[in-house]
Amino acid sequence: MEQAQRYKVLVVDDEEEIRAGISRKIEWDSLGFGLVGEAANGHQALELAEALCPDVVLTDIKMPFMDGLELCARLQDTLPAARVVMFSGFDEFEYARRAVAMNVFEYILKPINAAELNQVLLRLKAEMDRRRAEQRDLEVLRRRYEESLPVLRQMFYTNLLEGQIPASQLADRAAQYGLKLPPGQWTAALLRVERQPDPLRRDEVLLSVKELLQAQADGLPWPVCTALYKDDVALLACTGQIYPLLQQLERLRSLVQSDLGLELTVGVGIPSEELAGVFQSCAGARAALEYRVLMEGQRVIYIGDLEPDSSATVALAEEDQHRLAAAVKLGQPQQVTEVVRGLIGRIREGRVDLPRCQLFLMEFSTNLIRLARAGGVELEELFGSSYTGAVPIDRFGSYEELESWCVEKGLRLRQLLGRRRTDSAGQVVERAKSFIDQNYSDSTLSVDTLCAYLHLSPAYFSTVFKRETGMSFTSYMTGVRMEQAARLLRETDDKTYLIAEKTGYTDANYFSYVFKRRYSVSPSKYRAGAQG
């Protein structure tokens, strides 16, 4: 069997004779395993596991310094995919049953029988082979993809209605999900259920409305698709014939009322020239719904009848703000440029004159200010020392100048936020090191204690610390403690157990074990060598 196909095994037992017996009596290769390491206790096992990434851990339940159950719990965090086989004495049987909840595959009573262990390993390999085969089986992946198609299509429509799919990708993405979206004008309508009989069944009610509308799609004179969108049902129609569409929407609204007993209000946006711009039509449909309290008795509301002036598109909609924030905080420079150019292009297409662009400039600047303050960026760094809190629109002579300024400020803020994130990571690590240097003598010091002090999650801190220092929190803390222990051995006459306590170890034997692993000599021999 090829080396790459074998499962890696780590054996953990405090009795060297048992470890040697397991290593010698099991024919690892023929079973499909490879023995990659041995450990005498849980602490050593964790360090080896981090370096070797074993697939299987065979561990005793009772060991000094850290027992098998604690080791198993710690492995769930560091190697959640690893399977565990646990050994226990007869009198530890009930104790071992707790292992069932800790991803333990099997536990075996001591003394360990080679034949029994062989059978356990064979069953374990069969299960792991099935899991690996399932993960790699293209047919399984294809079936899972098909099962996920409804969710993927829903995500597609949501992103489409929020303007988050580039026009160049629309056709390919639609074809990938089996959607037929022909070229041409598209109009968005949002159908909102008023006075739902049971708010707890909101999703079920919206789904029933969507299915009824989709069932009526074949009877409409244009291609139509429906999707759930936030708290509404979206209907997209491939047509620019707005008034025939309004008549059909009124018919559908009446059908929902008679068949489902639900009262709908329908908001309709201005037709877009192509599918990529349907998010603007959706924004108009959402705006139309906001007028429903003023339109007593009217249930199908067209935004073009209420806001025919193109200046209605000057303000930044919620989705515009989200896209701008995402590009500035997390995107590449090209994404920032594309988002800003898209916003300016919308104003240019609406032929909005520059004096009426003041609202856009004010909202754009306000969004940058909000992002800057949240990221700890001084406004002078972003806008310059002469910034007074507002940017007058008359400083620009054309759309091109306005676009250039907005792109430049967006890119500048992206650069400043990136620099703050890098500086912040370094500061976190330095604060962590300082805390460890001051508290290494505390035997209860842990990553959780440190993260509570730093007000960070353990997962985020561990990632940042490992990236910045090249080692884990445990390795770094052990290094600090050992350096201090070596110093005390050289400079004082303290007993070994006192030095252990001063460096955060409650067990002098374990302290000596760790010290010898680091310096290759016992504490007493190290002192003798330093003084000799």
Mind telling me which CATH architecture of the largest domain this is? 2-Layer Sandwich
The amount of helix comes to 55-70%
- In CATH terms, the superfamily of the largest domain is Reverse transcriptase/Diguanylate cyclase domain
Distance between the termini: 54 Å
Global mean pLDDT: 85
Strand order of the largest sheet: 2-1-3-4-5
Strand residue content = 5-15%
Number of strands: 10
Number of domains: 4
Radius of gyration: 33 Å
Class by alpha and beta content: alpha/beta
How would you sum up the global shape? extended
For the record, what CATH class of the largest domain applies? Alpha Beta
Which runs of at least 5 residues are low in confidence (pLDDT < 50)?
308-312
Description:
The chain is α/β, with parallel strands linked by helices and 532 residues long. It folds into four domains: 3-136, Rossmann fold, CATH 3.40.50.2300; 147-308, Alpha-Beta Plaits; 318-421; 467-531, Arc Repressor Mutant, subunit A (Orthogonal Bundle). Helices cover 58% and strands 11% of the residues. The chain has helices spanning 16-25, 28-31, 42-52, 68-78, 93-97, 114-136, 138-161, 167-176, 202-215, 242-260, 278-290, 303-306, 318-330, 333-349, 358-374, 379-383, 399-439, 447-454, 458-469, 473-491, 496-502, 508-519, 523-531, and strands spanning 7-12, 33-39, 56-60, 83-88, 104-109, 187-194, 224-229, 232-237, 263-268, 300-302. The strands form two sheets. It has a five-stranded parallel sheet, sandwiched between helices. The protein has a five-stranded mixed sheet with strand order 7-8-6-9-10, with helices on both faces. Helix 11 (278-290) links the parallel strand 9 (263-268) and strand 10 (300-302). Helix 15 (358-374) packs parallel to helix 17 and helix 21 (496-502) packs across helix 22. The chain starts with 6 loop residues before the first strand and ends with a helix. Residues 308-312 have low confidence and may be disordered.
